[in-house]
Amino acid sequence: MVDVAERAGPLAGVRIIDLTQFVLGPYATQTMGDLGADVIKIEEPSGERQRTAGKAPVSKDMGPAFLAFNRNKRSVVLDLKTDEGKDALRKLITTGDIFIHNMRPSAVARLGFSYEAVKAIKPDIVYVEAMGYDDAGPYAGLQAFDDLIQSAAGACGLGQLVDPEAEFRPLPSLLADKTCGLFAVIATLAALRHKEKTGEGQYVAVPMLETFTGYMMAEHLYGETFVPPTGKFGHTTTITPHRKPFRTKDGYLTVMPANATQSARFMELGGLPGAYESERFTSKTSGREKVAEYYAMMAEAALAYTSDEWMAIGKEHSIPVMRANAPTDIFEDEQLKQTLFEERELAGEGVYRAMKPGLRFSTTPAAIHRDPPRLGQHTDEVLAEIAAMGSGR
Predict the structure, then answer these.
(1) I need a labelling partner for 64 at 20 to 30 A (CA). Which of 47, 150, 228, 264 fits?
(2) What is the DSSP letter of 354?
(3) Would you tell me how many other CB atoms lie within 10 Å of the CB of residue 309?
(4) Which residues are marked as active site?
(5) CB-based contacts of 218: which residues, under 8 Å, 6+ apart?
(6) CA angle at residue 366 from 360 to 371, to 5 degrees?
(7) Does residue 228 have a cis peptide bond before it, meaning omega lies within 30 degrees of 0?
(8) How far apart are the first and last CA of the chain?
(9) E-assigned strands of 78-170?
């Protein structure tokens, strides 16, 4: 099913030649596709390897991981190991505004599509290369995957800022890939803006390690910001062990009082009036003991109601609260059911659950224009467009 929005997105008219695979690149190009860009996804004859990740109900090459990162694209199969495939890609490049890949620089150069080679075909191209590591450092050219980047960036040890005995492990999300994908979008749009003003294309590098480390550690340098240090590494309010949801009668609730008045009101509503004046609190002599008792009282108060009841109470009394969903609870969250999830019919593949773009534009809406493509679904269509452009029609 193709659902074409009545109004074009803000990137309508921009064509992206997309040689990305896995997560980082496809997430970046899907985001730009959501914004209206014409994304031409180039796949080898066997298809992108992400196509078979996870179980699909019909076609094994239309797996859930592929569907999550490849809507709003047209799939074109080209064998870039052949002269015919390379010639087709060169012709396609002449019609593009952006060329993006996340291969190792040496691999794309061997194929004949380095920046210099692509620039020779289309001088004003915005060429975006997402690689693992900045080529100014000793890791240049090494392979990069999410776990490797999280490891080098210090993300695997963040848990030890809260619990020194915590196991070293990656955060349970492909966070480096997705974060760097978004930075690739930012960089691409900045280069497009420059091109609009000057007519000049350029090379854009998105090194994962440097980009992700800067993102993850922006607040955590903290006391290590100055040389010599003025304090410890780690942003104090984010690494406190008390930073977690409270149990309710039937689930969990996150409470973020803006001031002592709100926290006192929460505790009163939960059956602990005058909490700050109570003997259990005032008897504590050290600041650390008082903090621990405060959180103990908040936890006790939270148990007075269900999560839904607290949501209503919080709204009535202007106390910032939010139910803490388990991962699969998001499907039943009333906000997300109305604003994010959409069930769509994928021709020949059945119904799938899509997550709509979260961004909103009043004039140029972001939208799902195309469902994830079957392998090579648009090869003939796109090659015909190139031929028509070449003949002047």
Answers:
(1) 150
(2) E
(3) 14
(4) 177
(5) none
(6) 140
(7) yes
(8) 29
(9) 98-101, 126-131
C-alpha pair distances (Å), 251 with each of 57, 232, 302, 319: 33, 35, 10, 18
For each of the domains in the chain, give its residue range(s) and CATH number, in order of start.
Answer: 15-217+334-390 (3.40.50.10540), 246-323 (3.30.1540)
Tell me the pairing of strands 38-43 and 252-255.
Answer: unpaired
What pLDDT does residue 2 have?
A: 40
* Sheet with 252-255, side-by-side order of all strands: 246-247, 252-255, 321-323
Residues whose CB falls within 8 Å of the CB of residue 138, separated by 6 or more in sequence, listed in order: none
Tokens of 274: 């005058």
Structure tokens at 328: 């699969």
> Among 61, 100, 332, which Cα is nearest to 206's?
100
Short-list 204, 209, 92, CA closest to 147: 209
Angle of helix 175-198 versus helix 146-153 axis, rounded to 10: 90
What residues form DSSP beta bridges with 351? 345
Per residue in 144-196, pLDDT (tens digit) is: 999 999 999 999 999 999 999 999 999 999 999 999 999 999 999 999 999 99
- Inter-axis angle of helices 146-153 and 208-216, to 10 degrees? 50
Lowest-confidence pick of 5-19, 59-73, 255-269, 310-324: 5-19
